[in-house]
Amino acid sequence: MSLKAEDVSYRYPGAGGPAISSASLEIGKGELVVVCGKNGSGKSTLIRCLAGLIKPSQGRVSIDGQAPEKARRAIGFAVQFPERALFERTVCDEVAFGPRNMGLPPDEVDRLTGQAIDAVGISRDLMSVAPRSLSYGRKRLVAIACAIAHRPGYLFLDEPAAGLDYEGRTRITGLIKSLKAAGMTVIVASHDPLDLLDICDRLVVLDGGRVVADGPPSVESLGRAGITSDTIELARRLQSCGINVREAFSPEALADSIVEALK
Amino acid sequence: MKTPAIAKLAWLALFSIAVLMAEGHFLAALAAVLIIAAFMLGAKPGKLLRMLLPALPFIVVISAFQWLFAGPAMAALTLVRITLLYVAGSVVTATTTETEFIDTVERLLRPVSTLTRTDIGRDIATMMMLAIAFLPIIKEEHDSIRLAQEARGVSYAGFRGLIKGEIAVIVPLIYGLSARTDRVATAMEARCYGIKK
To answer: What is the pLDDT of residues A18-62, one digit of tens each?
Structure first.
C-alpha cells in the first residue's frame, strides 16, 4: 500500500511553463517525507497533486491503488496558513466537520473529534470556544486537528510551521513525530525543513518544478534547495578538531552528540 | 424563558404579511405590537436605532420616489411600512445568535433533505455560516488594505478622496478574498465535504 506519482506534470491555466515537470515518487506507508525547495519551486502544487486536490495535466497519481478522487477518506490536508480556512462556530464543530461529512454516527463523530483534539494537545475546555478567538499557534493546532480528525492514512501539511515562533515550531515538530509514530504517512512541504530533518525518512528536493533529489536528508541534497546547515558545519569543524560528534541537523541533536562525545 | 428562533421567524413572517396588508390605524396597532415584541424579546432600543440609521437614507429615497409617482399619502404609507419591516427584522436578528439561525434553517430543511435524499439542508446552513463567518474577515481585510494604501500616500480626505481611495482598496480586496475562498474550498474538500456517503 503506497502513494504513487508517475510522471506527474501540472501547468496552471495561463501560466508560461509548468509548475511541476515529470515528477515521479513512491511514498510507502508510515513514511515521513519532507518536500523542500525555494519559493515557487512547486512544493505546494506537487503535494496538492499527490493529495488529489488538483488533477495533474499529465501523468497519474494513485493512493493505495485507487484514483485520488476515490480515496478522499484516506487523505488529510492542511493548507498553507490553515487557520485562515477556519469558519465553524466552535472548535468542536470545526474539528467535527470532516467526520460529519463522512456520514458517521454522532457518537463516533464525538469520539474522533475528542481524539483529534487530544492528539494536537489542545485542552478539551476550548471545544466550545470560537476558533477565531484563539491565539495564532492554537488556531494552527486546531487546523491540524481538523486535517487528522477523520483518521486519514496520508497527511499532507503545507508549510505547517510558517509564521510560528520557536515554541510553536517545536510543538508542530513534536506533533509530526507523534503522528508518524502512530503509523500515519506524513508528507510535509516546507521551504525551511531543518527542524524535521532528524526525524524524516526522505527529503525530496524540487527545483523549478523538477525533482532534483530524493533520498535520506544530506548536506548535498539540502544544498540543491539552497539551504545550508550550521549544525552540520559545526559538527564537521568539531570532527576536524578530534571531537567525535555525529552530524545532526537540529541543534538539540548536535548538543546531545557533543555531550556524548565529551563524556 | 428564551424564545426559540423558529417562533421568532414565524412571528416575523406573520408580522410582515400584516404590515403589507394593513393601512391607517391598523399600522399604528402593528407598531404597538412591534414595540411590545421588542420589549418581550429583550431587544435594546439603542441597538435597534443603530441598526436602523444606515438604512434610513435608502428608505427615504424609496419613499421620495413614491411621492413623485403616487403622491404624499402613498409615500408616507411606504415609509411607515418599510420602517416597521426593517425594525421587525432587526428585533429578530438582534435577539437571535447566528448559531440559532443556522440550526433553525437546517432543522426546517430537514424534511426536504430526507425527501430528496440529499444534504441540501446542511449545505444551505453551511453556505449561510460561511457567509456570516466571512463578513468580519472582509472588514478586517478592507481595513488592513486601506491602512497600507494610506501608508503609501493614498488620501481619503473629502468625498472624492474617499471614492478614489476605496477604488484603490477594492482590487486587492477582491484578489485577497478570492485567494481566501480558494483556501477555504480546498480545506473543505480535503475534509471530505461533498463526499458520497
So the answer is: 999 999 999 999 999 999 998 889 999 999 999 999 999 999 999
**A92 and A179 within one domain:** yes
- Residues B149, B92, single domain; the answer is no
Query: How many structural domains comprise chain B?
Result: 2
> Are A101 and B194 in contact (CB < 8 Å)?
yes
B143 contact A CB<8A: no
Domain that includes residue A249, residue range: 229-263
Please indicate, yes or no, if residue B168 is contained in any of the structural domains: yes
**Owning domain of residue B138:** 116-190
Distance from CA of B123 to the nearest CA of A (A): 11
Residues B84 and B122 in one domain: no
Task: Find cell 506533533 and name the residue.
Answer: A175
Chain B closest-CA separation from residue A92 CA (Å): 13
Query: What are the DSSP calls for A195-228, one per residue?
Result: GGTTT-SEEEEEETTEEEEEES--HHHHHHTT--
User: Looking at beta carbons, which residues of chain A come within 8 Å of B130?
Assistant: 87
SS3 category, A17: coil
Tell whether B142 is within 8 A of chain A (Cβ): no
Same-domain pairing of A217 and A236: no
Binding-face residues of A in 29-58 toward B, CB within 8 A: 48, 51, 53
Looking at the domain assignment, is residue B109 inside a domain?
no
Q: What is the pLDDT of residues A57-116, one digit of tens each?
A: 999 999 999 998 888 889 999 998 888 888 888 899 899 999 988 888 989 999 999 999
- A13 and A81 co-located in one domain: yes
